[in-house]
Amino acid sequence: MRTIFAAAALFLAACTTVTTPQEQPPNNSPVQMNRDAAASRGPVRNLTAQPGEEIVTIRYWKIKKGGFPQFLEASQTGIWPFFEKIGARIVGMWQVIPPPDGKQASPDYDEVYLTTRYASVEHWAATRDAAAMGGDGPDYAALQAALAVRQSLTIETKVTFLKGATGPLGPVYMPGTGEKFIEAP
Question: Could you tell me the residue range of the domain that residue 82 belongs to?
């Protein structure tokens, strides 16, 4: 029995690692996000969740005309799963459509908006080096491939940071039934 405990203690000691705080990733630019290869990253282990003041980003793109289905597919299958893994929360992605009786869409490009929630500005900045938070496994390779698809469709992009509060309930559309009512006697 002592031999088993001794072996377990040696195993645990061999698995123990010492970590040091890391500096802010140098790649904070939304245009440069994850372009630098993470060749030396490997698996990662994360610290506990860090408190912060939640932010929401709204990212805008002009993309090649007709490219939205491919852009959305790359986001849903390759980018969003990795970003959810590293703590970001995707609210949604939308293609701009012309309003009823309004200005028509551009014949040259489509417009896209993405809204994402982050725990803080520091969290957003850390996601610019996604492999440092989520590792460089197969899901990271899928992230890189999906980012390349989006980049191939992108004409221009910009990001806006927002701080505030969300409402407690989502929207509800409840059209009338069209029934006719008569006053009771």
Answer: 49-165
- Report if residue 25 sits inside a domain: no
On whether residue 173 sits in a domain, the answer given is no
The structural domain count of the chain equals 1
Indicate the pLDDT class of residue 44, thresholds 50, 70 and 90. Answer: low
> Nearest-CA neighbor of 60 among 124, 116, 117, 144?
116
48-73 pLDDT, tens digit per residue, is 666 678 999 999 999 999 999 999 99
Question: Which of 36, 53, 57, 58 has the alpha carbon at shortest distance from 122?
Answer: 53
Residue 42 lies in a domain: no
Q: Cβ(19)–Cβ(44) under 8 Å?
A: no
The domain spanning residue 88 has which CATH number? Answer: 3.30.70.100
The verdict on residue 43 lying in a domain is: no
